[in-house]
Amino acid sequence: MSVVRRQRAPGLWIPFAVVAASTVIGLVSGVQEFDTTPSDAEVNPGSEVMLECKVRNRRGECVWLKNGYALGKIPDKYDFEREPPNGDCSVHIRKVNLEEDDGSWQCQVTRASLQDAPLNSNVVKLIVREQPHPPRLEEGTNPLTPGMAFKTKAGDLRRFQCVSRKGNPPASLRWQLNGQDVSALANQTNQTDVEKRGTWQAQSVLDYTFVKEHNGRELRCIAYHGAYEDPSGGPGHRDVSVILDVMYPPEIKYEGHPREEVEEGGSLTLNCVA
């Protein structure tokens, strides 16, 4: 008896072969995911900074967003690989400046197929330091001249403002009375400075009631900021102060008050000392 063998058309095996190969590649390469995501950074203008972003099993394209808008690769400014073989999507930012680079940054990787999910890193802040103006003191709405004598009455509550403008980030403001920190009694608020985009106005308010012992003492406001130069390497500072001229009533006492009785018509000497 003869055996008949059927021949399959070669083309019928191709779909199976393609699917099998695709499945094997997917299993070997794995799902693209972040190895390293960017972190917040604070730098001085004119310097360089690297925002790290590394992807395992990368197949999509690397994209960087600044304040929600995609950035292109710009020579001598923004340097990153769109399709790095090693998955390193980090961006190297040169000649950092406040106007162009300060803001929110995010690393993204596009999907390369329907099986891949796009990747979005956490949004981070790149802060480009801007040196704030030196602090100034105000009492109510009146500016105070540095080093001046500030007149007040003992027992009166006075309100002082210390203001530092056009800094990025906002300055940290502290108060000292005769060298002792009294910042816990103050309240600092920060708001965007209307005169210079991207900068902040810091204001600290101190309410204080002075007594006669404060007469001649120094009230000082200190502004700390990373853009101020400090030989020790820490945050530098600028300060402003006034000298307190506290007015208070005199203490009155009598001297020479006799213990014995004085006859009518007799003489008595009393000293009044203030």
TrEMBL record:
Q: Where in the cell is it found?
A: Membrane
What's one GO MF term for it?
cell adhesion molecule binding
Keyword match Ubl conjugation: no
In this chain the Ig-like domain maps to 15-120, 135-241
Xref: InterPro entries: CD80_C2-set (IPR013162), Cell_adhesion_signaling (IPR051275), Ig-like_dom (IPR007110), Ig-like_dom_sf (IPR036179), Ig-like_fold (IPR013783), Ig_I-set (IPR013098), Ig_sub (IPR003599)
How this chain sits in the membrane, per its record, is: Single-pass type I membrane protein
Q: Name one Pfam family in it.
A: C2-set_2
Keywords noted in UniProt: Disulfide bond, Glycoprotein, Immunoglobulin domain, Membrane, Transmembrane, Transmembrane helix
CDD domains, per database record:
Ig
Which region is the signal sequence?
none
Transmembrane intervals: 12-31
Name this polypeptide is given: Putative cell adhesion molecule ixodes scapularis cell adhesion molecule
Q: What organism is listed for this UniProt entry? A: Amblyomma cajennense
Starting at the broadest rank, the lineage of the source organism is:
Eukaryota, Metazoa, Ecdysozoa, Arthropoda, Chelicerata
